[in-house]
Amino acid sequence: MRLLTLPVCATSLALAIAPQAMARDYGQHGAVWPVIEPDLLQQIHARLTQLEKTGETARLNEELKRRTIARVNRPEPVAGVTLAAALRSWRFDPTITAPRDIADDKGRVIIAAGTRVNPLDTVPLRAPLVFLDGDDPAQLAWATRRYASTKAKLILVRGAPLELMKARQRRFYFDQGGTLVKHFGIRAVPTTVEQQGRALLITEQPVPPKERAPS
Asked: pTM score, two decimals?
């Protein structure tokens, strides 16, 4: 029994002393200052109010509007694309491997993971894709003359698509961010992309010298 008495007594003594130790007043150490930093939301509100009074908000909005319109009319050119100086062509296989099961709206698996799928089997490329520099009159003349009677999609890597649509009464597209150029490995323009069986034939081709004169 003596072996059990010592821990019990020690525990009782600790519990009796603990409340007194925790409740001790240690006094004040150092100066205490009130919080005088202004509220962040109040600062933002005051700044916005000031901008509104001075007309700065209206000016900023107009500047944003102007820049947005300018970017729509003339998107950022696709970097790294040059003028085609030599004929270069290659076949592009669009086949992909499904990374996971693809199910329909009822949960039924229509394409199992690991299945190789060629999009051209179900969605053929109905018209050529023509990539060109919209600021090059020769490329524009060549493309619009060669594909005048087709539904080829003229895709700009540089230039003003809306202005060209109005001037030539034809739809022009723009490869925003160079997504398609990177996907197909295009390095120069003009370049055409056409379906050839279950693959795509991509051809970078210089504008013939006799067609360099703009129409």
From this structure: 0.68
